[in-house]
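ARCHIVE RECORD
Type: protein–small molecule complex
Small molecule: NDP
Source of inputs: curated submission
Record status: active
Notes field left blank by submitter.
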Amino acid sequence: MAAKLIDGKALAQSIRERIAKDVADLHANTGVRPGLAAILVGDDPASHLYVKNKQKACDAAGIYVDEHKLPASMSQADLLALIEKKNADQKVHGILVQLPLPKHIDSKVILDAVSPAKDADGFHPYNLGRLVEGNPVFEACTPKGVIKMIESTGVGIEGKRAVVVGRSNIVGKPVALMLLHRHATITICHSKTKDLPAVCREAEILVVAIGKAKFVTADMVREGAVVIDVGVNRLSDGTFVGDVDFGPVSQKAGWISPVPGGVGPMTITMLLYNTVESAKRFAAAKK
Ligand code: NDP
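STRUCTURE (tokenized, with ligand):
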């Protein structure tokens, strides 16, 4: 493999150690223990696994988890009432609503009901608006994890030509904005982009978040590029791969993140980070 590996798991672990120290210091100095409300509706196995992993990471860092596992039949009104309760709960500094929600519940209504001051996932329109301004409070976890991974390479972002493939509100658009604020020159691509391979080949930094297994092939990658693969795709044999064809692309890129063990662990770590930063703001406001 010519490219250097961006080991999301190792990077996440080192950041989690710092977070655990921050949690201990905050608790010792102010009596505030960071708390995350984790709300899970229904019995989707993948969602249960994601919440379990987030809970484990919180436990290891000393963050209190207020877990709510609710039946798929619950009403939107009851879920809204729970969120209102958690918005007012002094022990909770971050609120995570695991997606997807059952079809009879409008995710947008629910996410908009989370207090922007406790929006640890960074999905609330207020926090997205602050990001557009370049003055963010909570930054969405996956995009923030992507930025930390790029920064970990030592390849400066400023002035670089960056291409983001995917324009979702939770990954593509916020990643592009975060790169823009760090002075990269950005192109955002999507399913209607013409000659995607040619656009991707211009990228010194290439972030791919589309959800299509091994879609980005070596001929789409510039020699020496930093390649971050956000995609998670389950193959028929049960294994997971990213949106990037890792083997051939790693022969051409300068840096590459794997799947699994890349962006995934960093996403969870940024949720912990956001929860602790929120608790610090809460403690400072109490003084
Ligand atoms: P969405 O489905 O919301 O968005 C996909 C984007 O990819 C859209 O903008 C779509 O374009 C674009 N796209 C689809 N096909 C193509 C194509 N052939 N060429 C160019 N662009 C294309 O996905 P998400 O952003 O939510 O997630 C993307 C991937 O990242 C998924 O695999 C998901 O599982 C993964 N993910 C991983 C996380 C982690 O922690 N590791 C966290 C979040 C997501 P258009 O807008 O035109 O339809």
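CURATOR ANNOTATION: Residues 142, 165-168, 170-172, 189-193, 196, 209-212, 230-233, 263-264, 267 surround NDP (CB under 6 Å).
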